[in-house]
Write a structure and sequence with these properties.
The complex is a heterodimer. By secondary structure, chain A is an all-beta fold. In chain A, about 0% of the residues lie in helices and about 50% in strands. In chain B, the strands form 2 sheets. In chain B, strands 2, 4, 5, 9, 10 and 11 form a 6-stranded mixed beta sheet that branches. Chain B has a 5-stranded antiparallel beta sheet with strand order 1-3-8-7-6, with no helix packed on it. In chain B, a hairpin with a 4-residue loop joins strand 7 and strand 8. Classes of the chains: A mainly beta, B mainly beta.
Chain lengths: ~110, ~110
């Protein structure tokens, strides 16, 4: 399967713990995006990488959130000191230049 | 401020009939629009897109219409099939990589 993959698919954590999610984009895609989706809403943009450079961060991304794409391939999204309000589906997408974005299956985070 | 709105949270259609999903936007800088389909426990899947220089784009059973003056787009599915049952999101972008999504419409195609 050459689509976007995300791991883990589900994560349950206790409030205050740190979590890290991984995204592997489609191999030839140089652009990578993170979105967050809560119940009844569409995906909301979090951050964007072109190759290894993080070019934009949404104001939704508090300083507890950090994302990296160290070699311009896979990306990680870390949330420190998780809060119940962080519970959501975290979606990764990738694209070639300005083409359509292709989404992974998402990581569902539940903070108890 | 919801820049992309899907005012119908759900829609039921009989198999074989036409499904029409609507989307309105407020930002006149948007120049590229997309529809995504989402099944439970999966990420959104790209369906069809349209540039603001066109008013219609067709791909098989799916057609997207864009009315720039009304800031409105619609997705037509003809004929509707039970496998089309999913949540449909419209998204818009204005010369950037950032997609703004609507809240989705849940389509149920009844056999």
């Amino acid at each position: 399967d050459t689509g976007v993959s995300q791991n883990p698919r589900h994560k349950i954590t206790k409030r205050g713990q740190n979590v890290t999610f991984r995204c592997d984009p489609i191999s030839e895609h140089n652009r990578l995006y993170w979105y967050r989706q809560t119940l009844g809403q569409g995906p909301e943009f979090l951050t964007y990488f072109q190759n290894e450079a993080q070019l934009e961060k949404s104001r939704l991304l508090s300083d507890r959130f950090s994302a990296e794409r160290p070699k311009g391939s896979f990306s990680t999204l870390e949330i420190q000191r998780t809060e119940q309000g962080d519970s959501a589906m975290y979606l990764c997408a990738s694209s070639v230049s300005s083409g359509e974005q292709y989404f992974g299956p998402g990581t569902r985070l539940t903070v108890t | 401020d919801q820049q992309v709105k899907q005012n119908s949270p759900s829609l039921s259609v009989q198999e074989g009939r036409i499904s029409i999903l609507n989307c309105d936007y407020t930002n006149s800088m948007f120049d590229y629009f997309l529809w995504y389909k989402k099944y439970p426990a999966e990420g959104p899947t790209f369906l069809i897109s349209i540039s603001s220089i066109k008013d219609k784009n067709e791909d098989g059973r799916f057609t997207v219409f864009l009315n720039k003056s009304a800031k409105h787009l619609s997705l037509h599915i003809v004929p509707s099939q039970p496998g089309d049952s999913a949540v449909y999101f419209c998204a818009a972008t204005g010369g950037t990589y950032k997609y703004i999504f609507g809240t989705g419409t849940r389509l149920k195609v009844l056999a």
